[in-house]
Give the backbone structure.
Amino acid sequence: MPPRHARREYKKMTTWGLFKAQVIGPNGPWKGLKEVEFTTLEWVD
């Protein structure tokens, strides 16, 4: 079993990859940071 910090890092990387694949890629191009922030809040909720 990998060390605990490696598992946390893996989980973080998979969440980030999922976010980019579901939200950032398909919904771009973005007009500004506020648009990204609101879309992120909707995705998390």
Observations:
- The helical segments are 4-27, 33-44.
- Residues 4-44 form one domain.
- The chain has a mean pLDDT of 81.
- The chain has one domain: 4-44.
